[in-house]
Amino acid sequence: xxxxxxxxxxxxxxxxxxxxxxxxxxxxxxxxxxxxxxxxxxxxxxxxxxxxxxxxxxxxxxxxxxxxxxxxxxxxxxxxxxxxxxxxxxxxxxxxxxxxxxxxxxxxxxxxxx
Length: 114
Description:
Elements: E1 2-5, E2 23-37, E3 42-57, H1 60-70, E4 76-83, E5 86-93, E6 101-102
Parallel strand pairs: 1-5
Antiparallel strand pairs: 1-3, 2-3, 2-6, 4-5
């Protein structure tokens, strides 16, 4: 299975250690989503925009670990998207984004510019 990551799970980011057993497939831009800063990590919500990230091949145990990290408390919901590498899971932010900083570039690595 595959997963699209756009924030702290990307290479050289704070939670990239969770991707140790994952196989990087390539970069991807996902249309129809907007990225917001939630502090030390981002949240993607449906909207007019695009977000940049990476697609990985992962195993079931890695997905279970990521689910425990991302979906606890209902903060994110896993959704299936289409990428050039095949369908992939993506974590979509489930809480209100009012008052959060939008990252217009769609690239979490640009967060320090906001």
